[in-house]
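#dry-run=false #mode=assembly
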Amino acid sequence: MSLLAYTPLIDPLPIWSYWMWLIVPLSAGVAVVYKSIKTESMREVPRKALVTTLWIIGGMAFAAVALTAIVRLLEA
Amino acid sequence: MSNDRVRPILPPPLIALVGWLVPGAGYLLIRQRARGLTVGITILILFVLGLLIGGIRVIDVPGYDDSGARRTVAGRWLLTAAPVAEIANKPWYVPQILTGPVTLLAGQFSLNAARNRIDPSHARIRDIGTLYTAVAGMLNLMALIDAAHRAGKERA
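#status=ok
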């Protein structure tokens, strides 16, 4: 399905090849809400949320690489 | 003395209830406008993104089948006859409903789409859409607990 045929809320977003990038807005959203709750001063939230977003994405990437290595090792 | 200082803080359970009704509104009631707007808007964006990614039918309403018809057992609606089993059958609805009445509204649209024979999305995209909406609900749970806790501290 092309983007032109996409009907919002009816069709799933045609991003079959790029689904992995959907971790970025999800991580950013989680980081913003979490840091807004944990941080007393809201002025510090943007910087802390950015750092947390990078940690989440980095952690996920590390987990992906580690699990791939384990699977390859077991298959070898 | 400013008006803010004399306005009393509402009881924590009421703050939690308002936080469920409108994400982030609990903070607004305890005069934390920036926190309330940031949290509320972010949660609603995540929820809407989930619906846009997976389609409206990522809201899988318990008690209804894939065609949007009520499921019954021995003439009784399944959700009242065996509520625990039916909700356990569609566990993602539990975190989704924590986003608030917006989930009920989206659920109604989802049922209408099912009755109009609009198929749900499948595989990974559906999972990701469901995940977004469920995470939005879990974040709202955290936010309403925090807002109620802060209200309790301010009242003490």
